[in-house]
Design a protein that fits this description.
By secondary structure, the protein is mainly α. It has 5 helices and 2 strands. A two-stranded antiparallel sheet has the order 1-2. It is globular. It starts with 13 loop residues before the first helix and ends in a 16-residue tail after the last helix.
């Protein structure tokens, strides 16, 4: 079961943090189709947030087709995302890289910015340029 962690200083709306953490758990295979999400009451007890905030997050996840609410039973995962299991060897390599970055004196935000920049470079849309073999006629 996923355990939500709310960062009140992040500037990200609380319900969006729940949505993002659920998506991440789906991508990492920590949540799979059929798994039950914690009840709103459980999330409220663990995080001290408003129950309506949890319900708003769950409605957003339902709108995206990721979960479904079953009256009287709870909210269940409908589909998974991605293919990066939590036990992937790549995760270990990233953990080692992160530890080296931290040892080099980088702060969390520095690491996030560096990683984000590399992600943008590696996953940027490939631009195709075509050159005309015939001259332009004016």
């Amino acid at each position: 079961m996923v355990e939500y962690r709310i960062d009140r200083r992040s500037g990200v709306a609380t319900y969006l943090q729940i949505v993002q953490q659920t998506r991440q758990a789906l991508r990492l295979g920590l949540l799979e189709p059929g798994d039950k999400l914690p009840t709103a009451r459980e999330v409220v007890e663990a995080t001290a947030i408003n129950p309506n905030t949890v319900l708003k997050a769950y409605r957003e996840l339902e709108r995206e087709g990721l979960v479904e609410a079953r009256r009287g039973l709870g909210t269940f995962v409908r589909k998974s995302l991605g293919s990066a299991p939590a036990d992937s060897p790549l995760r270990g390599e990233l953990a080692e890289w992160t530890a080296r970055a931290r040892a080099a004196g980088l702060e969390r935000d520095d690491v996030a910015a560096l990683f984000g920049a590399v992600l943008e470079e590696q996953f940027a849309p490939v631009e195709t340029h075509t050159t005309s073999t015939q001259g332009d006629s004016a």
